[in-house]
């Protein structure tokens, strides 16, 4: 096929995909969400804003999510083919500027200030003064914030349709910047900045979670790999950048990093927003309803319990143990909102300090009415977004301890990304005969970004199917089924003892 024929085929893919999307929206009398209209998702927001938007919900339905992924992949390939190669390359080489601008947006509390200002926006001079008011919480401001670079930072973000420039040097939230809104008023942030991320869906915390240490680590990636300083034997770019022997989670447990540890715990809850068509609590991800009453589910490396909360809320007939490091278990109650407190306080869930690189308990103390019961073999081990933090040898050790604690009927549910190859050797996500990349390129590129981030911070990785099969088989587990979410990044992998 000639290049022009390929471009025409990509154009046709976009058109047919939009036809399918339009049909789905018109059938429900809806319009597709606009990038210019902010949707505030957190619960404690001003009256008039709601996250219960049917047009947004329809985006996660496979009838829309699948053609949308084809259109995104095709549009991206068209851009890459049609844009001047030098501009294309330079955009990639300078993408760190967008990361820095997003980091500034969140850290300056600009989304909350813009929401308070309303849809007509706020001028950069006034915005700078509002930012200074919040900066003063941490102590005297050395000098007033200069508004002149502010318009340039926000204009870069407006060019990426993250915020809106409504008039010259006047900016307002867009659909993307509204995702970073914590739901707090500027006054609430000024009075209690440490509570900014309380009662949120985790998205406001995901930016500092992925950028703060990740940005610095990534900036040292080439030096760490190609030109390490004399005497350095750092096992990750994070350790190299911070000149430490501690992994990131141990480093976060330092007393001076206590707020960052809580922030990271909050940010992990944001993973649910990229579930797409399938949630971890869905029976299509795992047959939870087939488990007998009071069967034990052990959430390994479960953090503050965000995944267990979702499963337990949907499947109250089961019992749960959330395992994580002692420091994380200790701060878990501080990270719960009122709904989570109700579920965790119902007596069906216990927290347990447990290093997943150590052998599992011989007997599990399971919460039951009037006390606790003892279980030798859990029905299910759940390992959610853990394996990508670790290299193969560490994962084999972790999974090996679970295998040793498993009974003959114990299942293992791994929720992680399984990266498709960029060639069709392991099958293709694209329709047969399509000009699209087999992995749908831009549609799921965030997974490949996370892959390199995990490598830089932890020397971990997002695995391909062949890599996941190899590491689990080496630990005594066999893949029984794999479910990919449509429109999301997660794969739900059910394994049985081999």
From TrEMBL:
Gene3D superfamilies: Vaccinia Virus protein VP39, Winged helix-like DNA-binding domain superfamily/Winged helix DNA-binding domain. One of its GO terms (biological process) is methylation. Pfam families: Methyltransf_2. The keyword Lyase does not apply. Residues 291-477 form the O-methyltransferase C-terminal domain. GO terms for molecular function: O-methyltransferase activity. Keywords: Methyltransferase, S-adenosyl-L-methionine, Transferase. This is O-methyltransferase C-terminal domain-containing protein. The lineage of its organism: Eukaryota, Fungi, Dikarya, Basidiomycota, Agaricomycotina.
